[in-house]
C-alpha cells in the first residue's frame, strides 16, 4: 500500500514537470482548447438536429421542440428537412474544421515541447561522468532519448487532449439530457459508480503493463546495440546460438507485456 502511494506521488510530480514543458507555448495550448470546446459543441449538435427533424416533421411532436426552432423552421416538411440537412452539413464542416485546427496546433505544440525535452536530455547526457556510461548500456540510453520521448509526445498531443475533449462532450450531453428528462438521466447515471470502479481497475492493470513494455523495449535496444557492436567477437567465439536464445527471452518479455496490455483493453 505504501509503495502504491509513493508511486502515485511520484507520478504526480513527474506529470507536473512534464506539463512545465508546455508553459512556453501557453498561447498555442489556449487556441487548441478553444477549438476543442467548439468541436465538442458541434459533436452534440448533430444528434439534436436529428431529433428536431424527427419530432418536427417525421413524427410531429411540436411540444418538445424549442420555440426558437419552431419559429426558425418552415411548416412545409420538405423545406424544413432540407434546411435541417443544410444545417447538419454545416455542423459536420464546422466539426471537421475545428478538429483539424485543434489537432494541427496540438501536434505542433507537442513537437516543440518534445524538441526542448530532447535538447535538455542531450545536454544532461553530455555532462554525466564517464563512469555512468560504464554502468548503463548505450541502447537503453538511446531508448530513453528517442522512443520514450515519442511516447511523451503522444501523451501531450493526443492523450490529455482526448481526455479533455471527452469530458467536455459528456458535460454537454448530460446538460442536454437533464433538460429533456432529469429522471431518466439520473437512472442512467446509476451505472457510473461501476464504470468508475472498472476504470480504476483497468488503469492499474494497464499502467503496470506499459511500464513493463518500456523496460522491455529498453532491454531489446540495449541487447541489440551491444551485440551488433560486438558481432565480430560473438562470431569469433561461435556464440550465435546462445545469443539467439538470450534475445528470444528478451523478446518474449516484450510480447507478453504487450499481450497483458491488449487483454486489459479488451476486457475494458
Secondary structure: elements and pairs:
Layout: H1 2-20, H2 26-58, H3 67-72, H4 77-126, H5 130-135, H6 138-145, H7 147-180, H8 182-189, H9 192-229, H10 231-236, H11 240-267
Helix pairs in contact: 2-4, 2-7, 4-7, 6-9, 7-8, 9-11
Which structural class do you get from the secondary structure elements?
A: mainly alpha
Give the % helix: over 70%
Measured by DSSP, the beta-strand proportion falls in under 5%
Rg, alpha carbons: 27 Å
Features:
mainly alpha, 11 helices
Task: Describe the structure concisely for a colleague.
With 268 residues, this protein is mainly alpha-helical.
Task: Explain what you see.
The protein has 268 residues and is mainly alpha-helical. It has 11 helices and no strands. The longest helix has 50 residues, at 77-126.
